[in-house]
Amino acid sequence: MPGRSGAGFLESPTFDEVVFGEGEGEQRFSFAEFRELPLRRRVHLLLSKLPKFYLAGAEIPRAQAMRFNG
Predict the structure, then answer these.
(1) Tens digit of each residue's pLDDT (9 = 90 or more) over 9-33
(2) Domain ranges for the chain
């Protein structure tokens, strides 16, 4: 997106879904939904709850999901 800092980060999908927490407190976001969250909320989720990232239905490493493309 033009004008945003961090060009290349979360510009193109690196995961299909991210899941934070378990059970009733579980929160699920698609790549697009997660990218649209305010930065402060994204950071809070990433630091406070162990995220699980999925691509094509399979869990992938966090480093792969959060890589920079650019």
Answers:
(1) 567 889 999 999 999 999 999 999 9
(2) 17-65
